[in-house]
Amino acid sequence: MAYKLYNYNPSGGAAIPVAALFGLATVIHIVQMFRTRSWYMIPFTIGGVFEAIGYLCRYINSTETPDWQTTPYIGQSLLILLAPALFAASIYMILGRLIVALNASSNSIIRPSWLTKIFVIGDVLSCLMQCGGGGYLASAKTKDSVDMGEHMILGGLFVQIFFFGLFIIVSVVFHRRMLASPMNYVGGSYIPWARCMKVLYAVSCLIMIRSIYRVVEYAQGSGGFLQSKEAFVYVFDAALMLACCFAFVILHPSKMLGEQGKQYQKTEDLEMLANHYEAERNY
């Protein structure tokens, strides 16, 4: 018996506005990325493209009910499944750049030069496992093939949660050490690092909740409750990932790591020199 692509009739009315919102957020991210030269946001931007195309594919399938075509299904399944891993890759790089900008490597349990590499490798491994599982499901003709595909996706999601959980631990330890010894670094005090950490915590929690939902979904299997209702996809995946996208639209990392802070520090230094010169002259 062939794998049933959907256990419900996909809603075109839900897919179109969600795709449009992801598209809007992605366009804004592209503009911000080029304007601020924040190339570490490239994976995040690609993730936004994946989300937008993924929900467009769901719309295409909604027009084909009940004879859904495999190609749009594979597109929506893989792109929506993989996008959060790309979001996470940029989040890893943001933390690494923050640590370097603060010259606070001693407060991190993983060296900044290794931090991004370790977590991106985990992301790649997770993506490969999820892609392989998605391919199995798309071509599944027996119950064993369906189970194999779901187990591969589940394994990839567990890898993603493991590395993302480790990243959150690294972030919390770094934050606590910074609070305990705020003068134990020589970075610029103009960098609002505490606010940056709060933003990273917020988007990290959103991605973690979404990943846990996906784990439970695939653990239940194709006949499970979560895969029987389309609403869960929009509540526990689309809405959470949209919140991530617009969080970085409003609080773009360049505002905390970019040239604005550097310019502020240069101005502050010039003022200090001028005041010192004036004091010397008066003396």
From TrEMBL:
The keyword Translocase appears for this protein: no
GO terms under cellular component: membrane
First-listed, main subcellular location of the protein, grouped into a coarse class: membrane
Keywords for the protein's UniProt record, in alphabetical order: Membrane, Transmembrane, Transmembrane helix
Topological type in the membrane: Multi-pass membrane protein
Stretches of the chain forming a coiled coil according to its record: none
Cell compartments where the protein resides: Membrane
Xref: Pfam families: RTA1 (PF04479)
Transmembrane spans: 12-31, 38-61, 73-95, 115-139, 151-174, 199-216, 231-251
PANTHER family, A to Z: DOMAIN PROTEIN, PUTATIVE (AFU_ORTHOLOGUE AFUA_5G01310)-RELATED, PROTEIN RTA1-RELATED
Protein name: RTA1 domain protein
Source organism of this protein record: Penicillium daleae
